[in-house]
Amino acid sequence: MKFLVVDDHAILRQGLSALLQQMGDDVVILTAADGATALAQIEAHGDIDLVLLDLAMPGLDGGQVIEAIGAKRVDLPVVVVSASEDPADVRRSMAQGALGYVPKSADPETLLAALRLVLAGEIYVPALLLKENGASTPPSGALSRLTQRQMEVLDGLCDGLPNKTIAFNLQMSEKTVKAHITAIFRVLGAANRTQAVTIARQLMTP
Q: In this structure, what CATH number is given to the domain that contains residue 163?
């Protein structure tokens, strides 16, 4: 497993790198101190599995890097690790394409859990955003913003089907199913499958 850690503070790069070693004996870690170097690393290493990215950096900021990664490697998950705990920054990062957002104030176990979740094809939403939303009402008209294929994938999720079965039933690749699931999470404001199914059922109930 190969990670890319992007942060302009050397001590944070070292700290995150040390923590990531707990993910397994086969972990390989690349680092970059700015966005331009990060993009060059991604260009040079096509086997990177996940990017951990700070938002506030010299040159290209985190948001620009997220969008550039999405243009180059749409399948490459990005998790923001930032000092900002402003919900607006969380929402902006997720809208730009990040699949997770972990405040730097979080404990190491939380970060590792978030990374495992994202690597499993889910989205990690921090507690600060969930608290802000509370037990919120599902976004009005959200289902109408899903494409026909996304609705078909959502039906599979509601039936409790794994990605492999959904892919077989809809005659698409598992990678495409994951991409649709990611889009569904974003539209519904869900952090995982369970939340997505719960929100969808609420929206489908008259």
A: 1.10.10.10
